[in-house]
Amino acid sequence: VQLQASGGGLVQAGDSLRLSCAVTGNTFNIDYIGWFRQPPGKERDNVAAINWSGVNTYYVDSVKGRFTISKDTAQNAVYLQMNSLKPEDTAVYYCAAQEQRGGNYYHTVLYDYWGQGTQVTVSS
Question: Given this model, what pLDDT does residue 25 score?
C-alpha cells in the first residue's frame, strides 16, 4: 500500500485547506485511513480517521466541527477538509493506513503504511 499526501500550504487564521491522500496498491485489507499531524518539536498524533468503507469517522476534540474527513471510493482517495484554521493547527500532516487487526483508529503505532508529510502553516 502506498499513500501520497498533498494539499498543504501557508494560510491565515480562519482560512480553509483541503488535504488529499491518494491510496494505491493492495487496499483489500485496509481497516482505517488516518490523518495525523506533528507540530514542531512534538509527537505525531491522530486528528481524524475513517474506516475503509467510509461509513464511520472519528475526530480528536480539538478539530471537531472544523475538520471533515471523507473518502472517495472510486478514486481511492481520502480528504481532510480543514476550516476555520488556527495557528495551533500548524504542523506537518500525514496520512496513514492501518490493516485489519481489530485495533483502534487513534494509536499511531498501529498504522502500517505512511505517506510523506505535507506542511500546513497557519499564520495569525
Answer: 96
